[in-house]
Write a structure and sequence with these properties.
Blueprint (H helix, E strand, L loop, with lengths): L3 H4 L2 H9 L7 E6 L5 H23 L5 E6 L2 H16 L11 E3 L2 E7 L5 H5 L6 E4 L7 H10 L6 E6 L7 H7 L8 E6 L9 H10 L4 H6 L17 H4 E2 L9 E7 L6 E8 L5 E9 L4 H15 L3 E4 L4 H9 L4 E3 L4 H13 L3 E4 H4 L14 H7 L2 E2 L4 E2 L5 H22 L8
Parallel strand pairs: 1-6, 1-7, 2-4, 2-5, 5-6, 8-14, 9-12, 11-14, 12-13
Antiparallel strand pairs: 3-4, 9-10, 10-11, 15-16
The chain binds adenosine-5'-triphosphate and magnesium ion.
């Protein structure tokens, strides 16, 4: 038989030892990505089912119930069920409500990503719960899971990546040190996972944007952003003359519609080495849609029929572009993921701005000749309260984010087919 420390990391062993204690009701394993939270929680899930069966035997309960909760059906399948099948060969037999029985316990699945998750568990009495990716859970659904766990000795196990410090999971549970609340939590950092190859951890550390993303993903801390959003932007290293732009580039554009606020179209280009270049910026206030059609057609004159990723908040503008036969698409706008993909490119030294694109001269039909990227990148700051950037001086920032995120994520999805990590 293998020794426990060959099977688990020291942090995971700590979690497993906690199962023998009876002084807690809610166990939260939170922290860095890839730090070993779900692997141990999946085993904890199986051990808890054995314990529940024993409790039920004592109480003479024929079919005790247990809640298995995850953000979505797909994430539960990927993070929990598939992993258990791979590791232990468990063959789950689902009934018509997607419940299944394991070790004499009936497991009811619920999806916490929307309030609809309530329906699956309303009214039931559960002997315990396992909540995967708990910080993504709708708070009402999470509360209902806790309320449902009313059977004798019921307890709840969660794993989660950190979020803002004001998140209910942190503020109301992890920080609740009252022993009567029965909350135990463990903080995982990426270094706690002794099974990860050293090289992989080094790459993760080197490639994760400084500040909030690093503190959450690598250190596993509940922090909000502070100061500059794009901390890794470095004007000295990232501004290049047009003459240094490689050939054979894939061009694309990002659009943030605006009238009272500035409107902006930026042109980006990717090379084959994973570098991204900002090659043109067209920003102007008080211009009607006709002006922007003209700018876009002018861009097409230079780069051909490229993709324009646009803010979907103005569907009439997107429709007008499409009527003009411009390849204009609604951009996916998820703010944090979008910022993360831009910030990653900067941190990894793959982001460049063509100097001439920032000079105060006109390009094509661009009447303004003033460019805002460099102003905005230094003024674009986190709002500590919301955990998102302050919505001010962000027009060019938004356009850059739409372009890079949609272009890069789209490619990744096609190449790897792996479902995107929900966080981190
Ligand atoms: N006890 C273990 N034995 C072998 N490999 C392990 C063990 N624990 C973790 N790993 C390895 O580390 C990887 C990441 O672990 P896990 O999925 O538990 O991380 P996580 O903290 O849930 O990450 P995320 O926050 O990204 O969901 C696993 O896919 C597995 O390869
Ligand atoms: Mg996980």
């Amino acid at each position: 038989m293998m020794a426990i420390n060959e099977l688990y990391t020291p942090k995971q062993v700590q979690v497993l030892k906690t199962l023998r204690r009876t002084d807690w009701r809610l166990l939260i394993n939170y922290g860095a990505v890839r730090s070993g939270k779900t692997v141990v929680d999946n085993d904890v899930f199986l051990m808890e089912l054995r314990r529940v069966r024993a409790v039920a035997d004592r109480l003479g309960v024929k079919e005790p119930m247990f809640i298995l909760a995850g953000y979505s059906s797909k994430s539960l399948q990927n993070n929990v069920l598939q992993e258990l099948t791979n590791k232990y060969g468990i063959d789950f037999q689902f009934d018509k409500h997607n419940s299944f029985t394991l070790f004499g316990v009936k497991i009811v699945q619920t999806f916490t990503g929307s309030i609809a998750g309530l329906g699956a568990i309303r009214g039931m009495t559960s002997f315990g719960a396992y909540v995967n990716e708990a910080s993504l859970a709708n708070e009402e659904v999470f509360n209902e899971i806790l309320n449902r766990c009313s059977a004798q000795d019921a307890r709840i196990v969660c794993d989660t990546n950190p979020d803002v410090p004001t998140h209910y999971l942190k503020a109301s549970y992890i920080d609740n040190k009252d022993p009567k609340a029965g909350v135990v939590s463990y903080h995982f950092t990426i270094d706690d996972n002794t099974f990860l190859p050293t090289k992989y951890v080094e790459n993760m550390k080197a490639g994760t944007p400084s500040g909030m993303f690093y503190d959450r993903s690598i250190l596993g801390l509940w922090v909000s952003g502070e100061g500059m959003v794009y901390r890794d932007f470095n004007k000295e290293a990232m501004m290049i003359p047009h003459s240094k732009l490689p050939s054979n580039l894939t061009y694309y554009a990002g659009i943030d519609w605006g009238y009272e606020h500035k409107g902006t179209i930026i042109v980006m280009a990717d090379d084959h080495a994973g570098n991204t270049y900002l090659v043109e910026e067209h920003t102007r206030q008080y211009e009607e849609i006709d002006y922007w059609v003209e700018v876009a057609k002018d861009i097409e004159q230079r780069y051909g029929k490229i993709k324009f990723w646009a803010d979907s908040a103005r569907p009439e503008h997107v429709a007008r572009f499409q009527r003009e036969a411009i390849k204009c698409y609604n951009a996916k706008k998820s703010i944090l993921s979008g910022i993360e993909s831009v910030a990653k490119s900067m941190k990894q030294g793959h982001f460049f701005v063509v100097q001439e694109a920032m000079d105060n001269k006109k390009v094509g039909t661009d009447k303004a000749g003033y460019h805002y990227f460099l102003d905005e990148v230094y003024m674009y700051v986190w709002d500590k309260g919301t955990g998102l950037p302050v919505k001010l001086n962000d027009d060019v920032m938004d356009a850059v984010r739409y372009a890079i995120y949609n272009m890069h994520e789209g490619i990744k999805a096609r190449v790897t087919k792996k479902p995107r990590q929900l966080r981190g």
